Amino acid sequence: MWWKGHAILTLIMSVFTFIITGNITFTILFFLSAIVIDIDHYFLYIYLVKDFNIFKAYNLINDIRLGRRYDVHGGKYPVVFHSIEFMIIIFLISLVFPIAIPITLGCYFHILIDLMTINPERFKNIYSLTSYVYKNGFK
Ligand SMILES: [Zn+2]
Q: Which of 80, 99, 103, 138 has the fewest CB atoms below 10 angstroms from its CB?
């Protein structure tokens, strides 16, 4: 989803989070994790394009999201923090370290928004790191 949509929906959810928990640290961690999770798209951009320009990365990722481009990573490469494996790992970590609970919930909220707004055909190829490596190896 576009960053403004994520930011607005996450801000609204953060208000509810604060009302429910009354904990500002929990709320800030929830908000930040729900936004910062998209950094993996930038990491993938750096890896694939060999460039650090965050503005070019944003434009390219946005073009892919809008279906204007598919030539770089659209629908092919998994993004680490959006993968099912990462979701399982952070869930397990939050069972041991309660400080990770708001981070886990923030990431899950982000993925929920992504699932509601991304073409499911595109998402089915990129949800699992294991599935990607099984099909393509480490390339
Ligand atoms: Zn996302």
A: 138
Of 86, 92, 97, 106, which Cα lies nearest the Cα of 27?
A: 106
- Identify which of 83, 126, 116, 101 has the alpha carbon closest to the alpha carbon of residue 6: 116
Distance 29 CA to ligand 1 centre (A): 17
pTM metric for this prediction: 0.84
CA 63–ligand 1 middle distance (angstroms): 14
> Which tens digit of pLDDT belongs to each residue from 10-64?
999 999 999 999 999 999 999 999 999 989 889 988 988 899 999 998 888 877 7
Centroid of chain to Cα 76: 16
Q: How far is the CA of 56 from the centre of ligand 1 (A)?
A: 17
Q: Judge whether residue 1 has pLDDT over 60.
A: no
